[in-house]
Amino acid sequence: METVNIHEAKTHLSRLVEKAARGESFIIAKAGKPMVKVVALEPAETLPKPQRLGFMRGQIKIPDDFDTMGQEEIERMFYGE
C-alpha cells in the first residue's frame, strides 16, 4: 500500500482521491509516521433506497365521505348562515 506525506497529499489531492475511488487505498503520513488510511466509500447502489409511495398502506382508512367532510361548516364560513 502506498504511503504519501501530508505535503504531497495536499499538493496532489485530486489525483489521490481518484486513485482511492478506483479502490487503491493509501496511507497519509506525517514525518514518516502513518496517520490515516484513505479508502473508497461503498457505491451508493448498495445502500437501500427509501420507499415512499405506499409506505402506510393498510394503516390508514379514508372515509367514503372524505371529499365532502366539513362541507356544511365551510359553506357557513363562506356564505353565512
Give me a quick take on this structure.
The chain is an alpha+beta fold.
Fold topology:
Elements: E1 2-5, H1 6-11, H2 13-21, E2 26-30, E3 33-38, H3 71-79
Parallel strand pairs: 1-2
Antiparallel strand pairs: 2-3
Strand residue content: 15-25%
- Tell me the distance between the termini: 82 Å
What oligomeric assembly is this protein in? Answer: single chain
Structural class computed from helices and strand pairing: alpha+beta
Average pLDDT over all residues: 88
Radius of gyration: 30 Å
Mind explaining what this structure looks like?
The chain is of the alpha+beta class. It has helices spanning 6-11, 13-21, 71-79, and strands spanning 2-5, 26-30, 33-38. It has a domain at 2-41: YefM-like fold. A hairpin with a 2-residue loop joins strand 2 and strand 3 (33-38). The longest helix has 9 residues, at 13-21. The radius of gyration is 30 Å and the shape is rod-shaped.
Based on the model shown, name its key terms.
81 residues; single chain; alpha+beta; three-stranded mixed beta sheet; YefM-like fold; 3 helices
